[in-house]
Design a protein that fits this description.
Layout lengths: L8 E5 L3 H13 L3 E5 L2 H11 L3 E5 L7 H11 L5 E5 L4 H10 L3 E4 L4 H18 L6 E3 L2 E4 L4 E4 L2 E4 L2 H12 L5 E2 H9 L9 H13 L9 E4 L3 E4 L2
Parallel strand pairs: 1-2, 1-3, 3-4, 4-5
Antiparallel strand pairs: 6-7, 7-8, 8-9, 10-12, 11-12
């Protein structure tokens, strides 16, 4: 993560030259330092060499798909935030991207202003998350926010930055229903939109890691017509 007072560094992995040029110009105008990779392999190599503060990753690349690139980058660096750009709107594709290690996604066509807002929200959350937090206990699982690890017995599961932030917020409000709008505002720092299913997709992903039976959740419960509630 960029230190206070330094320019945040973004790696853009995008093969569309016109889109990449527009994004690079906009992001640099907004105060970010940007490097552009045109292929998945170039993106992986650049991420390894430069350790960017955030990665914007297109799903459709000429040499491979963004899922595989995301998985490899995530193996190399479990913490760097990854926002996936996708022309696909199916929920299954978005969940697959989150399962591959993406922290967020933006569906094409998208507003550049929305993308910039999401990037800035990531950096705000990471600055807040730099402060140490006490471990969380949920059922028979313990979550260490500092190492982003969920432990159950001897088993360990790595969590992404936003998975930890979502659990922290739900834990603060344990036993209380919270709306999707509240979660988006407090965790992502973005406003809700009619097609935004970010929270739902992250809950699906978290249940797979936290719940003994994800299809019969005992801890992250759906409150129909409202949102979600954490039972510790």
């Amino acid at each position: 993560m960029a230190e206070s007072g330094t320019t945040p560094r973004i790696l853009l992995v995008e093969d569309d030259p016109s889109l990449a040029l527009g994004l690079c110009d906009t992001l640099e105008f907004e105060g970010f330092e940007v490097k552009h990779a045109r292929t998945g392999q170039e993106g992986i190599s650049t991420a390894r060499a430069d350790h960017p503060d955030c990665i914007i990753l297109d799903l459709m690349l000429p040499d491979t798909n963004g899922y595989k690139v995301c998985e490899q980058i995530r193996r190399d660096d479990p913490i760097v935030p990854i926002i996936m750009l996708t022309a696909r709107s199916q929920e299954a594709d978005k969940i697959r991207g989150l399962d591959a290690g993406a922290d967020d996604y933006v569906t094409k066509p998208f507003s550049v202003g929305e993308l910039v807002a999401r990037i800035r929200a990531i950096f705000r959350r990471m600055q807040r998350g730099a402060r140490p937090d006490a471990p969380l206990t949920i059922g028979d699982a313990t979550i260490d926010p500092a190492s982003q690890v969920l432990r159950r017995g001897r088993a360990e599961v790595k969590l992404s930055f936003y998975e930890v932030e979502l659990l922290k917020f739900l834990h603060e409000r344990a036993g209380q229903p919270v709306t999707r709008d509240e979660i988006l505002d407090k965790v992502w720092g973005i406003e809700a939109s009619p097609n935004n299913r970010t929270v739902d997709n992250f809950v699906v992903k978290l249940r797979k890691k936290l719940e003994p039976k994800p299809d019969q959740p005992r801890h992250i419960l759906t409150v129909y017509g409202v949102g979600y509630k954490l039972v510790v």
